[in-house]
Amino acid sequence: MSDKYTRLVSHGIGKDLAKRLGLPQPVVLRRHEPGRPLIDGPVLVQGSTGGADELAATLLDWNLDVRRHAIPKEKLGAIILVLDELAHPGDLEKPVLTAAASLRDLAPNARVITMSRTAGSATEPATAAARQGVDGLLRSLAKELRAGATGNGILLAGGARTTSPAALGALRFFLSGRSAFVDGQFLTVSSGAGQLPDDVEKPLAGKVAVVTGAARGIGAAIARTLYRDGATLILVDIPAAGEHLAAVANEVHGTALQLDISRDDAGQRIIDHAAARHGRLDIMIHNAGITRDKLLANMDAGRWNSVLAVNIAAQLRINEALLASEHFRDSPRIVSVASTSGIAGNRGQTNYAASKAGVIGMVRATAALIGERGGSINAVAPGFIETEMTARIPFATREVARRLNSLQQGGRPGDVAEAIAFLASDAAGGISGEVLRVCGQNLVGA
Amino acid sequence: MSVNGQSVPRPQPAAASAAGKTQHAGAGPAQLRKAVVVGGNRIPFARTGGAYTKSSNQDMLTAALDGLIARFGLQDERIGEVAAGAVLKHSRDFNLTREAVLGSALSAETPAYDLQQACATGLETVLGLANKIKLGQIDSAIAGGVDSASDAPIAVSEGLREVLLDLNRAKTMSRKLQVLSRLRPKDLAPDAPNTGEPRTGLSMGEHQALTTAQWKITREAQDELAFNSHRNLAAAYDAGFFDDLLTPYRGLSRDSNLRADTSPEKLATLKPVFGKNLGAEATMTAGNSTPLTDGASTVLLASEEWADAHDLPKLAAVIDGEAAAVDFVHGKDGLLMAPAFAVPRLLARHNLSLADIDFFEIHEAFAGTVLSTLAAWEDDEFGRTRLGLDGAFGSIDRAKLNVNGSSLAAGHPFAATGGRIVASLAKMLHEKGDVNGRPARGLVSICAAGGQGVVAILEAL
């Protein structure tokens, strides 16, 4: 699972050689470590609006080294480009080109984060054009950034402001090492809901969370990350995976629930377990999924049905049970694992892509239902992640697949877990119905 | 009325017990509190030489413990006491259970002890720990057992052992050489364990063959019992019954001895392996006898208060237990017939009859063992002369016998069988709930080497 190439070209002769030969030069990404600062180096808040001023003041409260104007040659940890009052495409020039002058001063693993409003909420065509312009700007800029730096955007909708809890939550996430493999992505903050944690190291303290498919790979990483963030865990996997499930459960001080989620009563059994042991359930992470790849021309009912049953039908049924349960009422959060295959399609994965696109549809439609009880639902779509599953891809195919993104490397299971942990936290309360890609800005699928 | 100390008090007539007397068994002295079964965990049982060939008793017991800890969230918990044991035990495993605890996710401050009572080891750990809980000595406990016939200890011969010990004591080189000169080639042959009874030299199977013939148990009846065991165990797996009783281990997620597709016809084709020299027709085959098996099981026991404080389920109460032994050496009773005496004594103590039991878990060492025991209970002569009753002890409703399979299908890692049965029975009782206004009641009966047997009553909570 280790990416030897990235280590080889990260320093010394390997680095020099890769540069001379024009080979991809992935760097070892900055990832979150408890106790480390949110970001190293000064943060430049670019923009002259009231929203930018308020944001800069908030960042000072976070003890960040905030700049309102760049100091030439000073290495920057991040540039936050506040574009919350765009009315015309012409309004882009000044803030964007000013920020551009600082791009060469970005430190390795720096961050560029835009904060703007959703185009859909504009009534004036010129305003919509300006706001949509940010989309193309940011996605292109993210592809220009080097040395582990990423570019992501926060979109404000409805009454959300630059300092709304979820906007600040998303900003923290994008600034931090938690978003190491998230690049070229937008998150929409649609309301002022949400709450920043009392202890930034334990944003899930006191929460009871269920993770399905937790025995190995991304599921086990989710369990470890939620545990690190303070959650109490119930880990679910099929009975046959019980040995690994027990090991993970003992590692994260959780309980192992051996259960096939495609059973009709799976939702009720999860609720019963959570209610009996903890009196309630706060977070549901739908991670369990299977692949049964075959070209559609060769597809049989067994492969098609099993993938649809586990990957989407089970989630629908469990969510229905959860939303009807009295134990899932206190700002409940659901996060589903989708896939970039469900967005861009993938040869040989019609069944899998249908199920994962189905997850995205379900998440968008469920947002209103869970919003009625103050909760949220979102999806995370992983790209190429270094797991036991992708380790079985033939070498050449794997090597191409893992370099085909802006960060020129595969992500880690922990990168997906970080995005899920953020979306499951109250800091993301104002974000719902969203799909966040964790793909290093994969060239496939936009 | 007493015949050689094996007599039992007369049970109250069933009519009397149904007419108003409390049917709640195990009321016991008022100061005793309840010991409850919270749940259990075992690893799938593997036929010897199979999936667990390279696993030691300590590996398997630790795995079973870790699965239990994961199921109930007991990480870093200081449990009152853990007791387990193995029948086939290496001398280095003198502290087997404590070592398994230290290797598990439990608090290292959890005390443990080993126990050994042949195949009754597992059930005896349950009873001993339940008694401690009832007395208030501990609030929580884990009972268990493990056995590996694959990783069995092999000892050096007596001759070599004596030479090696003397060699260690010899101080001079000439003395050492003198000691070594005593070695003979035959001393180098290892001493492997066997299931033979030390006092008779007969294997357990040969002993049972005597009993099977004595009680005139037919081949067909034995094969039918074996078939039912496989059918019931397979159905229980298919229904998900073991989803919260078992944690897969080393790639195995079901007992490897289970033959879901077996049939009475297939079983009828097997050649007899025991009792071939008895004169009577040999009826015991590999199909209606348990194979050597590797595996481990655990049971979480607690006081009601401890279970409640930890938000854990209470499946069943451990009501009472009874041990018995028979004089098989002089041929008075069959080697594995002790439960035929223990059960009547235990039920009499609680004013119960066989009709008051809703689940019978009679360990299937051999199909012949179960059927001989039932035949003895149905026999007037046995009831009068051996149990001291007016007539036969009684018969059971076969539909209540080993309803989710037993050792013939699951296999029988000696010390692990008690834990397997108690955890499964507790779950069955909890699901059954009440029967005719009283808690469902289950009987466990396990025969053991040395002519012993341990039996117990559990009641639904």
Folded structure, characterized:
The complex is a heterodimer of chains A (446) and B (461). Chain A is built from 14 helices and 13 strands. Chain A is of the alpha/beta class and 446 residues long. In chain A, helix 7 crosses helix 14 (413-423). The radius of gyration of chain A is 21 Å and the shape is globular. Chain A starts with a helix and ends in an 8-residue tail after the last strand. Chain B has 461 residues and is α+β, with helices and mostly antiparallel strands. Chain B has 15 helices and 14 strands. In chain B, a hairpin with a 2-residue loop joins strand 11 (434-435) and strand 12. In chain B, helix 5 packs antiparallel against helix 6. Mean pLDDT of chain B is 90; it is low at 1-5 and 11-29. The interface between A and B is medium-sized, with 23 and 24 residues.
Principal-axis shape of chain A equals: globular
Shape of chain B: globular
Oligomeric state of the chains present here: heterodimer
CATH topology of the domain at 197-240 and 319-460 in chain B: Peroxisomal Thiolase, Chain A, domain 1
The order of strands across the largest sheet of chain A is 9-8-7-10-11-12-13
- Strand share of the residues of chain B? 15-25%
- Class per helix and strand makeup of chain B: alpha+beta
Please tally the helical runs of chain B, counting DSSP H or I stretches of 4 or more residues.
Answer: 15
For the record, give the distance between the C-alpha atoms at the N and C termini of chain B, rounded to a whole number.
Answer: 37 Å
| Average pLDDT of chain A | 91
Sheet bearing the most strands of chain B, described?
10 strands, mixed
CATH superfamily of the domain at 197-240 and 319-460 in chain B, by name, is Thiolase/Chalcone synthase
Strand content range of chain A: 15-25%
Q: Which percent range fits the helix content of chain A?
A: 25-40%
> How much helicity do the residues of chain B have?
25-40%
Which CATH top level class of the domain at 197-240 and 319-460 in chain B fits?
Alpha Beta
